[in-house]
Design goal:
Rossmann fold; alpha/beta; about 30% helix; about 350 residues; disordered N terminus; six-stranded mixed sheet
Length: about 350
């Protein structure tokens, strides 16, 4: 299990006088007119601050079979502490809750009327933390008893049914103590993994108890494929595992880059450097300076955004408008040249 220092976060909580800002790009807008083949270069500064206002979505997927009572208790009682510790790092977090249990007919499909045992969305993603706490409190441990559970169907359901926000940084915390039936209700490991990857959801598996969640390597493969992590601990440690992993993901970052959104053609955009890479964290505000070059490629007016990404997630946006002037037609160039020639000839005659 990766360990994270909580000291920085504690300082942020205690020092309430310390200002917190949203990440930004400066200047916030830019416009110019270029000729075809013409270029303009400006400096854009990306400011990464102590608290991000970019959307973060966090979903708890809980195994609710009979052996999971200690884990459910841990997350139910620890949710408030998770909120307290991560709030200084993000002002825009949505939370959601789902659970899976198991059908009682072995590895086949669920019997009629029992599909809810395979996956239930208890609370869609919301900023209403009271509603999330209520959903967590409504979970209780029961059923199971035959080994493998409906993990894969639960993962697929969380990936496809939750209302993940546009451009959000997405985290799924999946807590269980036994591997999954493969397939379950038509969902295989490959299908569940693809749904998580396609939705860009970093999946963290809480392998609680005796570690049987990963006995077949399923959890390792899924967390690796989605950019998450396999976490291990006792049943009562679930809330601490979630808190440490989420703090680490929101506090630390390694890559800051720029990207273009909403531009298909007409203007070329280049960045120098392409990105900044290092071991950074939000304990202090940091500025990253880029030279951005625009090149006119085809006549027209083009409105688009340059966005800042931190480890791939969009954290700030700014608007650009580039007008590319038309190239004179060949016939117009001939007429222009002829006209200039006539003017020059007339001037020469006057001089003579």
């Amino acid at each position: 299990m990766r360990s994270y220092s909580l000291g920085i976060v504690a300082v942020l909580i205690l020092c309430t006088a310390m200002p917190l800002w949203a990440d930004s790009i400066s200047p916030g807008t830019y416009s110019t007119t270029l000729g075809v083949g013409g270029t303009a270069t400006i400096t854009k500064t990306v400011s990464i601050t102590q608290q991000s206002a970019a959307p973060v979505d966090v979903f708890f997927l809980m195994d609710t079979t009979g052996s999971m009572g200690g884990t459910l208790d841990s997350v139910q009682s620890g949710f408030g502490g998770i909120i307290t510790d991560v709030s200084p790092l993000s002002s825009n977090i949505y939370w959601g809750v789902g659970n899976y249990n198991d059908c009682r007919d072995g590895a086949g499909d669920c019997p009629a009327g029992t599909l809810g045992l395979a996956y239930t969305q208890n609370q869609d993603l919301t900023a209403n933390t009271s509603a999330v706490q209520t959903a967590l409190n409504g979970l209780f441990a029961s059923g199971g008893g035959d080994g493998p559970e409906s993990n894969l169907y639960g993962l697929y359901g969380a990936a496809t049914e939750a209302s993940w926000r546009l451009d959000s940084q997405r985290f799924l915390f999946w807590a269980g103590d036994y591997e999954a039936w493969d397939p379950r209700q038509g969902v295989t490991e490959a299908i569940a993994t693809a749904a998580l990857v396609n939705a860009n959801i970093a999946t963290y598996a809480l392998n609680v108890g005796a570690g049987r969640l990963d006995i077949l390597g399923q959890a390792t493969r899924i967390t690796t494929a989605t950019g998450g992590e396999l976490l291990a601990g006792g049943y009562s440690e679930a809330a601490d595992l979630i808190k440490a992993a989420l703090e680490g993901a929101l506090l630390n970052y390694s890559t800051v880059s720029l990207d273009v959104v909403g531009l298909t053609s007409g203007v070329g955009v280049g960045f120098m450097p392409i990105s900044f890479t290092g071991a950074y964290d939000r304990s202090i505000a940091r500025d990253f300076v880029f030279d951005v070059t625009f090149e006119g490629l085809a006549p027209g007016t083009y409105n688009f955004e340059v966005v800042a990404r931190v480890d791939g997630a969009i954290v700030a946006r700014e608007a650009d408008s580039i007008t590319v002037g038309a190239i004179p037609e060949p016939a117009s160039l001939v007429l222009l040249g002829t006209g200039l020639g006539m003017i020059g000839l007339a001037a020469w005659r006057r001089k003579k």
